[in-house]
C-alpha cells in the first residue's frame, strides 16, 4: 500500500480511572487497553502516540501507572488481571516510535480559543491531558484539511468518542512544522476550521476507515485484502452481527485482480469501488444468486463452463456495465480473478 491507515492514541486512554469509579468502568478501562494493544501486532495499521503523552501523564500525577493500578484493583477486588501486565501494556504503547509529531513532521502549534463540537477536550479534568489533547486535535485537524491522508485515513482514539467526526475551530497564532504542503493558515481574529475522525473502540476505528479508497489506492494484495475485510466487517455489523475481526473470511486474491480492478476504478471514478465491494460481499455470503452466471468457453448458452482443474469460473453482475469474475474453488473457497467490462469474458488462471 502507498501508506497504512493510522491512528493516534490519546494519552487519556492510558490514564487509570479514579479509585472511586464504578467497578464496570475499571474493567472497561483494562479491556479497552488490551484491545488497543492488539493493534501492535496488526500489519495494516500504523500506531502513534503524542511525543508529550508520558510527560502529560506524569504532570497530572498519573504516571507511572503501577501504583494507581494496584490501588484501583485492590479497591474493586479485581483479580482477573495482573497489575504488572496491564502496566507493561501501557508502557509498551507509550514507547511507540516514532511519535505522531515526528512521523507527520509537525512540531507544535500555538493556538487559543479552541472549540470542538462535541466538546471532547473537557472529557478529562486533568490539565496536562487537556492541553496535550487540544494540541493533538488542532494538529490533526490541520493535517486532515490540507495534507494527503494515509490510505484509509487517520483516526484519533479517545477514552470516549461522542461522535465519529469532531468539528474543530481555533485561533492559530503559529504552526511549527517541516512540511511543504501546509498553506498559510487564517490569522486571528479569523478562525481555522477543520474536523477530526475519532473513535473509542475497535468497531469505531473500522467504521472510520474508507474501504473504497483503500481498494483503489492499494499497492499490493494486502491492501485489497484489507479493503474487502473492512467491507465484510461493516456489512456484518449492519446485519446486526458482532463480527470478530480475525475471524472475517476473506477470499483469495488472484494474481491479476488488483491490477484489473484498479484499472476499471481509474477509468470510472468514485461510483464503481463501492459496487465492486458489494458484489464481493454478495459472492462470499451467497446472496443475489440471480446475478451469477457460469463463465463459459464460448458465447453459446450450452457451451461448457470454463474450468481450472476442478475450479469453476463464475461471472457476477456488478451492474449492467461491469462484472466480477472469480473462481469457485473445489474446496469451497473463492478466488477473486478480475473486474471486467460487459463485453470481456476473459478470466486470469
Write a concise keyword list for the protein shown above.
12 strands, alpha/beta, YaeB-like fold, 349 residues, 11 helices, 2 domains
Can you describe what's shown?
This protein is of the alpha/beta class and 349 residues long. It has 2 domains: 6-206, no CATH class; 220-341, RelE-like (YaeB-like fold), CATH 3.30.2310. 37% of the residues lie in helices and 21% in strands. It contains 11 helices and 12 strands. The strands form 2 sheets. A 6-stranded mixed sheet has the order 2-1-4-6-5-3. Strands 7, 8, 9, 10, 11 and 12 form a 6-stranded mixed sheet that branches. Helix 1 crosses helix 4. The radius of gyration is 24 Å and the shape is globular. It starts with 5 loop residues before the first strand and ends in an 8-residue tail after the last strand. The model has no long low-confidence stretch (mean pLDDT 95). Residues 305-314 have a biased composition (Basic and acidic residues). Residues 293-314 are annotated as: Disordered.
Brief rundown of the structure:
With about 350 residues, the protein is of the alpha/beta class.
Sheet-strand content, in percent, reads 15-25%
- The oligomerization state is single chain
Shape: globular
The helix content, as a percent range, equals 25-40%
Mean pLDDT: 95
The H/E string reads: EHEHHHHEHEEEHHHEHHEEEEE
Major sheet:
6 strands, mixed
Order of strands across the main sheet: 2-1-4-6-5-3
Give the domain tally.
2
Could you tell me the radius of gyration in angstroms? 24 Å
* Spans where pLDDT lies below 50 across 5 or more residues: none
Structural class: alpha/beta
Distance between the termini: 24 Å
- Count of alpha and pi helical runs: 11
Region (Disordered): 293-314
Biased composition (Basic and acidic residues): 305-314
Amino acid at each position: 500500500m502507498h501508506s497504512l491507515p493510522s491512528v493516534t492514541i490519546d494519552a487519556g486512554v492510558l490514564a487509570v480511572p479514579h479509585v472511586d469509579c464504578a467497578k464496570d468502568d475499571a474493567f472497561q478501562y483494562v479491556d479497552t487497553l488490551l484491545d488497543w494493544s492488539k493493534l501492535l501486532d496488526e500489519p495494516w495499521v500504523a500506531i502513534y502516540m503524542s511525543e508529550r503523552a508520558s510527560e502529560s501523564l506524569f504532570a497530572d500525577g498519573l504516571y507511572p501507572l503501577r501504583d494507581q493500578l494496584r490501588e484501583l484493583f485492590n479497591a474493586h477486588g479485581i483479580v482477573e488481571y495482573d497489575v504488572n501486565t496491564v502496566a507493561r501494556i501501557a508502557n509498551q504503547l507509550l514507547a511507540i516510535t516514532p511519535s505522531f509529531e515526528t512521523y507527520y513532521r509537525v512540531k507544535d502549534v500555538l493556538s487559543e480559543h479552541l472549540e470542538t463540537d462535541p466538546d471532547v477536550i473537557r472529557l478529562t479534568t486533568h490539565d496536562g491531558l487537556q492541553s496535550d489533547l487540544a494540541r493533538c486535535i488542532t494538529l490533526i485537524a490541520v493535517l486532515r484539511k490540507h495534507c494527503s491522508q494515509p490510505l484509509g485515513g487517520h483516526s484519533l482514539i479517545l477514552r470516549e468518542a461522542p461522535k465519529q467526526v469532531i468539528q474543530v475551530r481555533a485561533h492559530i497564532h503559529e504552526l511549527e512544522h517541516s512540511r511543504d504542503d501546509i498553506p498559510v493558515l487564517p490569522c486571528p481574529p479569523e478562525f481555522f476550521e477543520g474536523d477530526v475522525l475519532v473513535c473509542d473502540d475497535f468497531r469505531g476505528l473500522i467504521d472510520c476507515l474508507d474501504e473504497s479508497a483503500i481498494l483503489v489506492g492499494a499497492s499490493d494484495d494486502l491492501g485489497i485484502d484489507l479493503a474487502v475485510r473492512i467491507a465484510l466487517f461493516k456489512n456484518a455489523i449492519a446485519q446486526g452481527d458482532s463480527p470478530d475481526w480475525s475471524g472475517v473470511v476473506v477470499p483469495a486474491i488472484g494474481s491479476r485482480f488488483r491490477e484489473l480492478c484498479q484499472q476499471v476504478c481509474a477509468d470510472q471514478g468514485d461510483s464503481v469501488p463501492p459496487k465492486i465491494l458489494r458484489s464481493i460481499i454478495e459472492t462470499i455470503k451467497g446472496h443475489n444468486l440471480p446475478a451469477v452466471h457460469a463463465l463459459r468457453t464460448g458465447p453459446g448458452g450450452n457451451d461448457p463452463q470454463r474450468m481450472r482443474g476442478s475450479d469453476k469460473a463464475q461471472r457476477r453482475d456488478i451492474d449492467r456495465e461491469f462484472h466480477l469474475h472469480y473462481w469457485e474453488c473445489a474446496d469451497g473457497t473463492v478466488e477473486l480473478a478480475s473486474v471486467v467490462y460487459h463485453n470481456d469474458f476473459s478470466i486470469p488462471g
